[in-house]
Amino acid sequence: MLDQYVVSEEEDAQRRQEFPVGAAVTLADLEDAGREHVLDELREREPVTWLPALGGWLITKREPARQILLPKSGATVEAEQNMVRASLGRMMLTVDGEEHERYRQPFEVPFRARETERAYADPIRAYARELIAAMSVQPSELTESFAAPFAVGVAAQVIGLPLDDVRKIDSFYSAFASAMEYTGDPEPLRQAEAARAELTDLLVQGLSRSAVVEESDLSPEEVAAQLRVVMFGAIETIQASVMTTLMLLLQNPSSLAEVRADPSLLVGAVDEAIRWMPPVAFIERWTKEPVELEGVRIGPREFVGVSVIAANRDPAVFEDPLRFDIHRANARHGLSFSSGAHHCLGVHLARMQTVIALEQMLAAWPSLELVSVTPPSGFAFRRPSDMVVAF
User: Fold this and answer.
1) How confident is the model at residue 128, as a pLDDT?
2) Closest listed residue to residue 119, CA positions, set 110, 127, 128
3) How confident is the model at residue 173 (pLDDT cuts 50, 70, 90)?
4) Do 164 and 178 form a contact (C-beta atoms < 8 A)?
5) What separation in angstroms does the CA of 357 have from each of 124, 138, 351?
6) Confidence class of residue 108 from pLDDT cuts 50, 70 and 90?
7) Percent of the chain whose predicted confidence (pLDDT) is above 70
8) pLDDT category of residue 229 using cuts at 50, 70 and 90
9) What is the pTM of this model?
10) What is the helix (H) or strand (E) element at residue 138, kind and residue range?
């Protein structure tokens, strides 16, 4: 396991002088809603920069960001300082090479596009209708009334386990997400460790009822570790994609009118929303060997972060990137689902599930208005914390 290089005060001072724009960036700039323009400025002036607030490097331009995520870059996730590992434990997203393949392989086939459509489309559609039909009180806050139960309920269907306590399961993943921040506060990690232990017990107890374990040579504990991260994608990020896409459609009436007239356009709307405001906003890597990106030399054992938000708004790739355009032909060229060996396992399910949720809400509610929304925020994971609608 790689141990991150410790930068001396003298070296830090030299890097601050060389990268003054990055030196001025704060953690709040990376986390708070409405501060995305800071990342745009970084991309234009210092696309690969030293960021003292993180104690590492930050990439905001799409092409070098993609490069560092590819296996040929030599970058790794196997570092003691990996906050994803600290939060979720040792599993497919925090190991490389043969161990990564061994953990991931049993889950590959069930998450292919064809298998996903065949196995999950109809149950997901029926469950969305059930939740929507039960929403009789309005205005309604969508996180508790739809997004959270929809995400947890579908996760249960996908992995074949009875996850009945929506609030409890959702609280586990809120704890995991909160721990993936570089604040130095040990309390979020303590809460994540407690949540991980409790969730692992639930998963191991229920594995006899899950089809996953029957097709794997992994131990029950190893299967549970992989399911923790599979569920993360199925819970935290699905809530984000559903709520952000609906928010953007309601804020862009002409786009909403188009998808109401032609629901097939929802696929493009979801892709564009995920590009415009990615649920996973930050990806971390560590260099094993020296690497040069955009003319910047980064030494071995250094921390390198990717701002997915900034990479997805790179005007060199996306024309008029701040505009929400449901017809954007290259919306999927963003890095919202990462790239390389660690690209998102559930990308096909995530897209399908979000499209179905929007499809069913728009069909059930011919008249839908946005009452209020808290703009998407968060460091590693980004979404509206609440959204109230009237229908």
Assistant:
1) 97
2) 110
3) confident
4) no
5) 8, 18, 10
6) confident
7) 97
8) confident
9) 0.91
10) none
Separation of alpha carbons 45 and 54, rounded Å: 18
- 165: how many CB neighbours lie within 10 A of its CB? 12
Segment holding 373, helix H or strand E: strand 369-373
CA pair distance 8, 12, nearest whole angstrom: 6
What's the gap between Cα 261 and its chain centre? 30
- One-letter amino acid at 74 equals G
Q: Note whether 38 and 25 are within 8 A (CB).
A: yes
Angle at CA 188, nearest 5°, toward 182 and 194? 140
Does residue 298 contact residue 25 with C-beta atoms inside 8 Å? no
- Report d(CA 166, CA 163) in Å as an integer: 7
Amino acid found at 314: D
Query: Residue 129 burial by CB count (10 A; 0-12/13-18/19+): exposed, middle or buried?
Result: middle
- pLDDT tens-place string over residues 341-364: 999 999 999 999 999 999 999 999
**9-390 under CATH 3.40.50.2020, yes or no:** no
